[in-house]
Every structure is written in structure tokens, then in C-alpha cells.
Design a protein that fits this description.
72 residues; alpha+beta; three-stranded antiparallel β-sheet; 2 helices; globular; Acetone carboxylase
Length: 72
Amino acid sequence: MNSPENAVICSAKGCRAAAVWVLAWNNPKLHTPERRKTWLACDEHREHLSNFLALRGFLKDVVTLEEWEASA
């Protein structure tokens, strides 16, 4: 179990909820195609953050934090 100092927190501004989703993205103007940056999201902010990235053409994948960590 994560301790408070290791807590994985949602990337939404002002949110302190535990993250359960990983939004993998890249900006094609700045990053190579295989590069993946990540934002973390709680259930409440997953759709909002995904839409923000998708609107810009940056969103590549959305997976659970558990799946992301298992694939690392």
C-alpha cells in the first residue's frame, strides 16, 4: 500500500485524490512518436483530462494505473 509520501495523486489542478488512471500522451511537435508522457487521473477527472489531450491530438492511451505499473 502506498504511504502518504508515495501517494499517486491526480494531475488535475487542485485535485488531491488518488490517481487510478494513466493518460499516456505526446506532443508530436516536441516528442518523437514513441515517447510517452503521462498524466494521472482520478475517476472524477479522467474524462476531462482525456478530452483536453484528445482535443489537441496528444492522447495516445488511457489505462489503469495498475495496468501501467504491471507493464513497466
